[in-house]
Amino acid sequence: MYIYGASGHGRAIIDLIDGYEKIHGIFDDNPRVRTLLGYPVLGPIPPNYFFKSDLIIAIGDNGIRQRVAQRLQGKVRFGNIIHETAIFSKRANMGSGCVVMEGAIVKVSSLIGDHVIINTGASIDHDCEIGDFAHIAPQVTLCGDVHVGEGTLVGANSTVLPGVKIGKWCTIGAGSVVLHDVPDGAKWLGNKLASPVFTKVA
Question: The pTM is what?
Fold first, then answer.
């Protein structure tokens, strides 16, 4: 597998896979980054580079991850990573470029989009839908039939109640309890809507 991104999330990805998966190369646009956990960083992806294996975009920022995926679309196949301690229902579905980290749970009839991060210990209950480029942070609980829109960050230790729909490119603050639907581009902090201003991400 190839890894794009040589910062904190890149280290987390290496830690997930280097015991069983050959790392063919690590790329990053920052020329000052030369190594990552002992692996050489090759710099930016050269034009017309031939990939021997799948690539994972190891970038935690949802908007940047989206832009990189769009730039590389059609040039490489994006892989998925599911840690051996995660529980992923055989009746759930996932797109490409996703990471399901240690201890995460994804239950029956859930649908995970492309380039989604399901972080450590997160719990996704039955019939949830997670949009492309979303990030479900550590120890989040999504109760049944929750919908999370494209590019949304659900902060660590948050709980989203059953049937709640969260829009695109929202931010749910850490430790929040989401009681009601959240419109596109809004911020939810604690147990209330903090900012319903839509911000479109190119």
Answer: 0.94
